[in-house]
Amino acid sequence: MKQWLFLGAAIISEVIATSAMKSSEGFTKLVPSIVVVLGYITAFYFLSLTLKTIPVGIAYAIWAGLGIVLIAVVGWIVHGQKLDIPAMFGMALILLGVVVINIFSKTGGH
Questions:
Q1: Taking CA atoms, which of 40, 93, 94, 110 is between 20 and 30 Å from 103?
Q2: Global pTM value
């Protein structure tokens, strides 16, 4: 169970870091730049803990898939970026893929 908490922490850390990257304006603003660096260090640390029990392909697929969707939501809410119907459909397919992996995969470290 803790491997899923570690994966969740990795995803949230990566989303925070990527969101701060937009706010850093090309690493010209100090505080958001520090958040980027610390966020990615934290994300990779927790991802490395996850990989002790979950296969790398499964963990990375979930990490990347959920990260894509969460970053799009943050971009929409925080930065006012628009999502069109094809983008939302594509993200729905990504989420469906994460669900399929978690429900049906026998290699997911359950």
A1: 40
A2: 0.85
